[in-house]
Each structure stands twice: as C-alpha cells, then as structure tokens.
Amino acid sequence: MLLYKLCAALLLWPCCSQWEEWLKDFGHDDFRYPGWIRQQMQACSCWLSSGEVLCHSSLTGEQFPQRLREGSELSWCSARQYLLSHMPSFDLQFLPGAVSVEGTSMLDDNIAFALMAWKASSISPRPPLAVAFPYFLPYASYHEARTNWRPPFFAKFFHLVAELKTSQEVVDALISENVRLMNWTAFRWPGYSGKSAGSYELGPFASGSTPPVVAPADFLTYGYGSCTGWAKFLANALRSVGVPAREVGSPCWNSGIFAGLATQNPNVSQCWNGGTGQVFGGKYLNNHNWVEYWDNIQNTWRFLDVATSSSSEDTWFCKRYQRGCDCSSSAGKAMQDHDILAPTWSVSDDEEIHGGPIVDVGSSLRLSTGEAVSPLVWSPHLKSPLGLPLKDVGLRVVNRTEFYRCSSQISV
After folding, report:
1. Residue ranges per domain, the chain?
2. Is residue 203 pLDDT above 80, yes or no?
3. Hey, which end of the chain has fewer CB within 10 Å, N or C?
C-alpha cells in the first residue's frame, strides 16, 4: 500500500518544476497540457448523484468530495469536483472554448493552469486548501463576462515570481513600478512567436468606467479601468501565479450625501440602486473596490488599494489599518447598510478562513428598511436574457465590515 501511494504521488506531480517546458507550443493549435496533467485528467471521472457532484480518481483511488473534507491535495480531480459543485449554475451549460486541443472548455484550461501555478510556485508554506479552493481556483468572482484569462496571465507573469517564497513578495513584484506589470505587451512566454507590438500599457485609472470594464479581458480591451476593473485584473493576476486573492469593496462608499449611519440617511437606497445621477466622489455610483490577498506567513487576509504601485494599506483606509484608529478614513466609516463585501463561491461558515460571515445575496442581503439589494451597484438591474435577476442566482459574499470598521464612535 505504501509503495502504491508513493507511485501515485510520483504520477500526480513531476519531480521538478519545469514550467517553461509546460508552455511549449502555447498559443498554437497543437498546444497540449503537460503529461502529468493529462494523466490526472484521464484518470478522473465525475457524475451526479442525488444532486451532488461526485468525482473519482482511478490514479489514486480517491473519491471526492469526501477527500476534500479531509484536506486533500490540490489535483485535477479535487479541483474539478470543487468547481462543478460551486460554480454558478448557468456556467454548467456553457463556458468558452479551451486553448488546448485536449480541453473541452475553458474549465479544463482553468484547472490545468491553476495546477501549473500551484506546482511551480516557490511559495512556502503553501496557503491552506480551505483558502485555495474558493480564492485561488475559481475563474470568476461573480457575474462578469467569462473569459479564459488564466492561461495568458500565467504565461506572461509567472516568471516574475517563480522564485519568491511569500505572497507579500509576489504582490510587491507584480505591482512594482520597475516591473511595470501594466505594460501588457512587455511580457512574453518562452517560445512566443508573435511579432513585436510595441508598448501597450494599461491605465490610467478611469473613474466611472464600470459596467463596461469589469472582466479582465474588458480591462485589456479598453486599456483602462476604474477601481472595479483594476481590482478584478490584479486579483486574477495574483491567482494566476499561485496567490489566493479576491476583490473586496463597499457598494455605497460612506461619503458625500451618503456619509454617516445609513439608518439616519434617507439617501442610502439611492446609493445601493445605482446612484442618483449626481456627481459624488468622482462619478455618481460612489462605490469603491480593492484587493485582498492571503498572507502565507501570517495566515490572514491583507489588502491593498487600486490603482496602486505599492502594497501600502494607507489609501482610503485608517493609515495601515489598526483597530481604534480615529475613523477619519472612508473605510473606517463603514456602518450599517454600507457593508464591505468580498465575493466568494464558498458555502462554508468558517469565519476564520473567510474573515467574516457568508451572506447569500438573493435571500439575505437587505438594507435596514428591509429592501432587497444587489452589491453590484454598477449594474443593479442585471438580469438573465429570460429576465431572472442574477443577484438571486448563487451570488454569495463575505461580510468584511467588522475587519475595516473603526472601534471608536463615528459622529453623524
């Protein structure tokens, strides 16, 4: 039995990281996944039983989700089981195609390139799987356009962080002014055969550019983004190189006519329903988003504002946030109905991992008036083509308000 497990482990993972070799022929129609991924892929079968997705690996004999609850290693089969069980239901019908001739859709690409980053990363200790599954593996945060961003992000950015040991070092490397991450055409993968395209630099920060600039590909197409577009791009860039990350923000920023306790503010409903049409805080929506990433040394969530060129925590916040600050920052003023929320696919209630309680938007997100609202204020009336409000379809958020809220009293 011990020999069997050892052989299975050797088949699951190659003996050394050769991520550059894994990208051979990437971007061409004969690109194939690395052999160790193909072995895991071919050994994994999934089926639906009593409404639950079950997966089994003939390579290791493991069955999921049972092994997920026991802290299984990240593998093709465990990743596939998690995604099929937690992805929005409408994605089960269609996702864009794969970049590999072996992939059936971008779901396969997402798993393959997530495994490449997980295996090749030098980060030590690794983030716990309870964090990696919901905040490293998913290909989307909420209902943004589905684009196959992970393969090119890994191919372009991984060499910047391949030898780094901590998630903080990875963050600093990606957003360093010397690296200029935003020069999209400057980064190429081994074997890149395209012609030189000169310089195409993303930016500058453009307030009021949401909803058109939300998904990573939208940000690349337009060449700029508001805080929402920047947060989406940066969080996914971190995920692509092995760091669990997520967007976080407040649908109604506590400033202008929306400042103070929402229970005493007659304008709060306007703020959560797409703004007033008047200009407050740049444009009229008055929301703000930024990035949280998992610190693998401190085992906690850290944050950085966007757009940014450093990992400082002193923009919009309580000057490198500490409880008991003077509450002069906008984040520190977050109060009832001005919640700070982070999208999640998880359904667990482990607040130590998530950093707060999980709220189902469709059934539980309410203003103090009882009004049902969506945190996607840049598109408050988003519906499916059949007219179903998408905020009611599997959108869950972690309520992070208590983490950012100041402990001293706010004067209204």
Report:
1. 2-120, 171-404
2. no
3. N
